[in-house]
Write a structure and sequence with these properties.
The chain is an alpha/beta fold and 732 residues long. It has four domains: 15-83 and 127-241, Rossmann fold (3-Layer(aba) Sandwich), CATH 3.40.50.2000; 252-445, 3-Layer(aba) Sandwich (Rossmann fold), CATH 3.40.50; 472-570 and 649-732, Rossmann fold, CATH 3.40.50.1000; 573-647, Trehalose-6-phosphate phosphatase related protein, domain 2 (Alpha-Beta Plaits, 2-Layer Sandwich), CATH 3.30.70.1020. Helix content is 41%, strand content 20%. It is built from 25 helices and 29 strands. Helix 13 links the parallel strand 15 (365-368) and strand 16 (392-396). Helix 7 (187-194) crosses helix 8 (205-219), helix 10 (281-294) packs parallel to helix 11 and helix 22 crosses helix 24. It is elongated, with a radius of gyration of 31 Å. The chain binds adenosine-5'-diphosphate-glucose (ADQ). Adenosine-5'-diphosphate-glucose binds next to strand 12, strand 13 and helix 13.
Length: 732
């Protein structure tokens, strides 16, 4: 796996970053529009990349901006593309689907998640616009890098517009286990959205493995856990654990310069969080209360300081959490306070970073106990600031940071007694142990800092597009042996795009001798019956395959023949003969610029593969109009529009007809069914057979499918046929 391309490699070309918020916060004051650089560490890490390589940062400015205002360059060598959102979109996409659905669900707090289809629609639309804006900025870019859960569908649009663009994603929050993620009614859509990327980064291995599990079980994608690769249709995605670090040096040096934060009369236990229910603030306070109950010696000797930055206050759950914490602080203080001491101090605001660093430095214990957290940077900042007497980090085992910060004292934040015991241990720990633990923590965080993370991510994104080794018999055995065992197999195969690659003209799509041989070998077995199901006219597809012993369904199943099945023509077709001729004449008017009409008896196909891409949209629209005017149904296929009579018959019905004929009404007890197809018209069969068969969709990962699994290309279909022909016979 080398670097992409020679000469000006993509690792030098511009980068487009997309995140929900821009690296600038905008506000309107009496002095006009004000722009302030966002304080977050991530911004400071990513900006140098943009300054060095050039590019654009795409994001929501947070307030409404005019077009001229939105286009102010940041004064460096990169652009800011501010994407305005309307009030409805902010409600639906941001407060709604992002923060009321995805945020709790991804943190495995499922009962807090609500599922609202209208909010999801906003999410889809805003993501499409983010993707389009990123693609628009990325024509000469070497990488598009999308951030976080608000934009999990944005990769789809980038991929659609720039099929070859290196595309990467980083998720800042956890990826939950399959059993949680599948509660989401749109789980397939989001998984497919992420799989439009070449690289997906997670904080820790556990999230990456959860993701692999989800795409395998939900989408039927092929997953290689050792290589951390996912093959879905014709695309392979690399999945990596890339734990985020902090700007260690900056925190350390601020901690050295910050003035003393308090008179060291009492031991200080510090909590620092956004006010969020995932952070476990009430549980932490209960643990502190339990400590004071069980170990009265800490009374008047320990103070807990909780800092909470206001966050998402439009969402009711955050407002009620604030009330809950206020009450808890009041109750615990009321219970234990003395004339000279109050156990909990609580500040509901943001404080300057230097002051924060002083507090980190002067704290005896940092209590970092989220119920769930993607990483948690507070734990790392605390370690970086331990430049004086070393303190103790008490860390939730449910934070991503716990994966690497092994020398912390780990707690389960739900276990109030256990947390109180651990806090007692932390407050009583001797200096030697504190120093050993903190030295190890600091060494790691200094090495794996923010810059190391950016470099590791860019390196992973710069590696050549991944590819899994071709499918082997072993893969098919794993997928199909348990399904097929001891049953006859009814095998249904589409023709164009499934058995032969798609060609400019249908006449060129000839079956290779090897594939014909493999089909014949399947058909020669006592325990396999093969049917070919095609949109071509029956005689046409029969001629192309040339194995008359098979069963054939032509014209999307309107005509069935061959093999041992009585010839079938749908009875309603009699009413459409003349209309088909009239439609053919009308469509002839659209035979321009290389487009042409294929007459297949009762159905017609308008082919536009040879038409210039930017002329297609108008032609397709005209064709759909003409088809509808003649009382036919138009259906988009690969570079073609299929016109079919509206008689409620499709490939799904045709499959049922064949199954009932061959095996009787109880066919599902007699045989196992496999259907392989690549087209929209095969989706009818996939839907019809859902739960009754194993279905494979061949080709592009970009189209949604109801098939059980995907195969990358015609070669994979050939491998499947060879495997089926050679497997040990069933004893049915
Ligand atoms: P957050 O949920 O925001 O981030 P976290 O990683 O802890 O969580 O970052 C919080 C930041 O806010 C820290 O830098 C902290 O110093 C700062 N902060 C908190 N309270 C403050 C206060 N009162 N005053 C000033 N600053 C304060 C999401 C994920 C995390 C993941 C990060 C980065 O939820 O799991 O670590 O993204 O990927």
């Amino acid at each position: 796996m080398g670097q992409r391309g020679a000469g000006e490699s993509s690792s030098e070309r511009p980068v487009v970053i997309a995140s929900n918020r821009l690296p600038y916060t905008f506000s309107r004051t009496e002095r006009g529009l004000q722009r302030e650089r966002s304080p977050g560490g991530l911004v400071s890490a990513l900006e140098p990349v943009l300054r060095k390589r050039g590019g654009t940062w795409v994001g929501w400015p947070g307030i409404e901006l005019s077009e001229a205002e939105a286009n102010i360059p940041p004064g460096g060598s990169y652009r800011i593309c501010a994407l305005p959102l309307g009030a409805d979109e902010i409600d639906g996409y941001y407060h709604g689907f992002s923060n009321r659905t995805l945020w709790p669900l991804m943190h495995s707090l499922a009962p807090r998640a609500r599922f609202d289809a209208a909010e999801f629609e906003h999410y889809v639309e805003v993501n499409r616009r983010f993707g389009a804006a990123a693609a628009g900025e990325a024509t000469d870019a070497g990488l598009v890098w999308i951030h976080d859960y608000q934009l999990m569908l944005a990769p789809v649009e980038v991929r659609l517009q720039l099929p070859e663009m290196p595309l990467a994603f980083f998720l800042h929050i956890p990826f939950p286990p399959y059993d949680i993620f599948r509660l989401l009614p749109w789980d397939r859509e989001l998984l497919r959205g992420l799989l439009a990327c070449d690289l997906i980064g997670f904080h820790v291995q556990g999230y990456a493995l959860n993701f692999l599990d989800c795409v395998e079980r939900t989408l039927g994608a092929r997953v290689h856990r050792d290589e951390m690769l996912v093959e879905y249709g014709d695309r392979t995605t690399r999945v990596r654990a890339l734990p985020l670090g902090i700007d260690f040096e900056r925190y350390e040096s601020l901690a050295r310069s910050a003035p003393p934060s308090q008179a060291a009369r009492e031991q200080l236990v510090l909590g620092v969080d956004r006010l969020d229910y995932t952070k476990g603030i009430p549980e932490r306070m209960l643990a502190f209360e339990r400590l004071l109950e069980r170990y009265p010696e800490h009374r008047e000797r320990v103070v807990m300081l909780q800092l909470a930055v206001p966050s998402r206050s439009q969402v009711e759950e955050y407002r009620s959490l604030k009330r809950e914490i206020d009450e808890l602080v009041g109750r615990i203080n009321g219970r234990f306070a003395t004339a000279r001491w109050s156990p909990i101090r609580y500040l509901f605001r943001s404080i300057e970073t230097e002051r924060l660093c002083g507090l980190y430095r002067d704290s005896d214990v940092a209590l970092v106990t989220p119920l769930r957290d993607g990483m948690n940077l507070v734990a790392k900042e605390f370690a970086a600031c331990q430049v004086a007497e070393p303190g103790v980090l008490v860390l939730s085992r449910l934070a991503g940071a716990a994966d690497t910060m092994r020398e912390a004292l780990l707690v389960n934040p739900y276990d109030i007694d256990g947390s109180a015991e651990t806090l007692h241990r932390a407050l009583s720990m001797d200096e030697e142990e504190r120093r050993s633990r903190m030295t190890a923590l600091r060494r790691r965080e200094r090495r794996d800092d923010l810059n190391a993370w950016v470099s590791a991510f860019l390196e992973a994104a710069g590696v050549e597009r991944a590819a899994l080794a071709p499918l082997t018999g072993h893969d098919f055995s794993r997928w199909l042996d348990p399904f097929l065992k001891r049953y006859r197999l009814a095998l249904f195969l589409d023709y164009d795009g499934t058995l032969t690659p798609l060609c400019d003209h249908p006449a060129q799509a000839r079956l290779s001798p090897d594939v014909r041989k493999a089909i014949a070998a399947c058909a020669a077995r006592d325990d396999i019956d093969v049917s070919i199901v095609s949109g071509r006219a029956l005689s046409d597809v029969l001629g192309m395959v040339g194995l008359p012993e098979l069963t054939f369904a032509g014209n999307h199943g309107l005509e069935i023949g061959g093999g041992q099945i009585p010839h079938f023509v749908h009875e309603d077709l009699i009413h459409y003969r003349q209309r088909a001729e009239e439609l053919g004449r009308a469509l002839a008017r659209c035979e321009v610029d290389g487009a042409w009409v294929e007459h297949k008896g009762p159905t017609l196909t308008y082919h536009y593969r040879a038409v210039d891409e930017n002329r297609r949209a108008n032609l397709i629209k005209d064709v759909h109009g003409i088809v509808a005017l003649h009382g036919y149904q138009a259906r988009d296929a690969h570079c073609a529009v299929e016109a079919r009579p509206p008689i409620g018959w499709d490939k799904g019905r045709a499959v049922l007809h064949i199954l009932r004929h061959h095996y009787g009404p109880a066919w599902s007890e007699e045989v196992r069914v496999i259907y392989v197809g690549d087209d929209q018209t095969d989706e009818d069969a996939f839907r019809f057979l859902a739960g009754l068969a194993t279905t494979f969709r061949v080709g592009s990962a970009d189209t949604p499918t109801s098939a059980t699994r995907r195969l990358p290309d015609v070669n994979a279909v050939a491998a499947l046929l060879v495997w089926l022909a050679q497997r040990a016979p069933s004893d049915a």
